[in-house]
């Protein structure tokens, strides 16, 4: 399939672009930085919050045939001021969605985050149920608010324009798990590629929200919706558990241990909404 990936030079973008290319997709990259060395495929150095620049990318791609899917990975990956967050998560998504509608591109795959529901109690606590994709939005940060708002925008475009959208609530995308929390939240590099490939190719997902984690023995989140779109994770953070558990719990382990969002829930992340310093 012909796929445009935003944030293509970022940590997840690099892995996903290489992985999708290896799986036979024709991948174009978009990022604010120049093309990384060795990138195979078309490259666009563009800010995806700029609607004219985004429209020009779609015009250019369309000249060599239809685009099948957009995978939107570009965004600030952590906490920032509310205006920065809305710009990074919602405005960029809107610019891409408008261009898709204008160019009849119908599949959008979005890097949402577990922090959309980060303030939900952890399911390994007594009497706390596992977390499904129908859980009420419960962000832990402005970052989480941005992801909730972007998911709502996606839902609107699915209903209005009949797009197919997969919102991936990604856990902890890392080469390997590093903390106790990651034993539940880890998403391996290979599983990230499997997930995006499934999200791009699933027949008629409509509006699907899935949790982006590996097949972790200690997972708190429901992998059923992911499996329903053909995502079958192969890795398990449990393989690293002995090494992680041989270190003493830290203060953060205790503070973080009540909510799924972990460190993002703690006071370290509190700030005034409009403070961009
Ligand atoms: C995310 O969504 C963040 O982008 C990343 O920085 C991690 O904090 C990750 O979630 C996580 O929850 O571990």
Protein architecture, described:
The protein is α/β, with parallel strands linked by helices. It has helices at 11-22, 51-62, 82-102, 142-161, 182-185, 189-201, 224-228, 241-245, 251-256; strands spanning 2-6, 26-31, 43-45, 69-72, 107-113, 164-170, 172-173, 186-187, 207-212. The strands form two sheets. It has a seven-stranded parallel beta sheet with strand order 3-2-1-4-5-6-9, with helices on both faces. Strands 7-8 form a two-stranded parallel sheet. The longest helix has 21 residues, at 82-102. It starts with a strand and ends in a 21-residue tail after the last helix. The model has no long low-confidence stretch (mean pLDDT 94). Bound molecules: D-galactaro-1,5-lactone (15L). The site of D-galactaro-1,5-lactone (15L) has 10 residues, from loops.
Please name the defining characteristics of this protein:
single chain, 277 residues, alpha/beta, two-stranded parallel ribbon, 35% helix, 15% strand, binds D-galactaro-1,5-lactone
Draw up the topology in text:
Layout: E1 2-6, H1 11-22, E2 26-31, E3 43-45, H2 51-62, E4 69-72, H3 82-102, E5 107-113, H4 142-161, E6 164-170, E7 172-173, H5 182-185, E8 186-187, H6 189-201, E9 207-212, H7 224-228, H8 241-245, H9 251-256
Parallel strand pairs: 1-2, 1-4, 2-3, 4-5, 5-6, 6-9, 7-8
Helix pairs in contact: 1-6, 2-3, 3-4
């Amino acid at each position: 399939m012909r796929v445009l990936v935003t944030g293509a030079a970022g940590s997840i973008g690099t892995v996903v672009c290489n992985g999708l290319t290896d799986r036979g997709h024709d991948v174009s990259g978009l990022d604010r930085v120049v093309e990384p060395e060795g990138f195979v495929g078309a490259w666009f150095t563009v800010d995806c919050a700029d609607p004219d620049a985004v429209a020009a990318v779609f015009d250019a791609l369309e000249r060599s045939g239809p685009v099948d899917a957009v995978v939107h990975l570009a965004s600030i990956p952590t906490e920032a001021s509310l205006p920065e967050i809305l710009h990074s998560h919602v405005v960029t998504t809107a610019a891409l969605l408008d261009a898709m509608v204008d160019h009849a591109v119908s599949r959008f795959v979005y890097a949402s985050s577990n922090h959309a529901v980060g303030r939900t109690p952890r399911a390994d606590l007594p009497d706390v149920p596992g977390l499904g994709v129908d859980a009420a939005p419960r962000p832990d940060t402005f970052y989480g608010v941005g992801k909730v708002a972007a998911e709502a925008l996606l839902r609107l475009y699915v209903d209005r324009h009949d797009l197919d959208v997969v919102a991936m609530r990604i856990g902890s995308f890392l080469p390997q798990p590093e903390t106790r929390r990651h034993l539940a939240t880890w998403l391996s590099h290979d599983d990230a590629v499997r997930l995006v490939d499934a999200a791009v190719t699933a027949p008629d997902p409509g509006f699907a929200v899935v949790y982006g984690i590996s097949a972790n023995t200690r997972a708190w989140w429901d992998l059923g919706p992911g499996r329903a779109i053909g995502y079958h994770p192969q890795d398990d953070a449990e393989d690293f558990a002995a090494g992680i558990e041989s270190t003493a719990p830290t203060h953060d382990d205790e503070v973080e241990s009540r909510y799924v969002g972990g460190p993002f829930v703690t006071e370290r992340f509190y700030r005034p909404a409009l403070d961009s310093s």
